[in-house]
Fold this protein.
Amino acid sequence: MKFTVTDPSQTQRLGKELANQLQPGDVLLLDGDLGAGKTTFTKGLAKGLGIKRNIKSPTFTIIREYQEGRIPLYHMDVYRLETGGSEELGLDEYFNGDGVSVVEWSKFAEDELPANYLRLKFTRLDNLGDSNREIELIAKGQHFNDILTSGVLSLDE
């Protein structure tokens, strides 16, 4: 499934829509270049989960936890683990825990990823304007296949 978004509010709306379908233990992998919209999407996801705090990129802290929503949000940026070290973070405890795990730059933690997840690939479409992005959703597992085929995800208001 692919979406073309033309401004950050649409990226956030997609995150908010998806949040309504998520349950504890769900893992979302966000991949794309710097500035492609990964944290913007996570802000919308957090709103959809009922989290009121400002969402910041966890680039330097690696993991930020937000407990106050419908279910907790664990926002991870594993870019800094490019040379290794993901096994020491205990990512499986988050992935098998009580919240939704969002992993930016997931390729740097491939060995730690669960069998089932939803991958979102963010691609900048600079030829169409600064804010245009393509977001491709790829399901791994029946739960995420069901979400993508249910027709509930939309950019319509």
Summary: Residues 13 and 157 are 8 Å apart (CA to CA). The longest strand covers residues 117-124. Residues 8-19 form the longest helix (12 residues). DSSP finds four helices and seven strands in the chain.
